[in-house]
Design a protein that fits this description.
The protein contains six helices and seven strands. With 167 residues, the chain is an alpha+beta fold.
Amino acid sequence: MDRRDTYLIWATLLIACGFYLAACVLPATKHWEHDGSPHGITQHNYRCVTYQGWPLLAVGWTGVLGGQLAWLANPAALASTILLLCRQWLGAATLGAVSVILGASYLIFPTVSNNQPDVPQVGAVLWVCSFVVLTVAALIRCTWRRRERDEPRVAADGKGISASPTV
């Protein structure tokens, strides 16, 4: 295990967790709700409500039942984090990319309720940024591994030795 692997992993987790926690406490979306007035449904009977990220994290899985798949970015990012900790770089990069795509799907195609699209806020952007950080870190490590594999190892005396052991 290389020291830079350890630094990369912990720096990545610190930054990603910072973005994720900020996304949970900051406004994540503006949503149109019916105000409950008995005068029928008109445009004037709706109010715009801003939600923080943590209630969306708690109940967002119900959106999957209605076809909104963006919440599934959370378990994909969790699996990516676990693979990053286990130093499974390619798997972490793959699941990280899946979480970025799923999360970005909400930013690009927000949920439509009451004929009004939700408006993603700063929390939603930070939520996706946390997934981007995980993915980029895993991709950087995949690149390092490929470079290490392609470069010949050098012995202490300066003579090159093969990358594969001789039998």
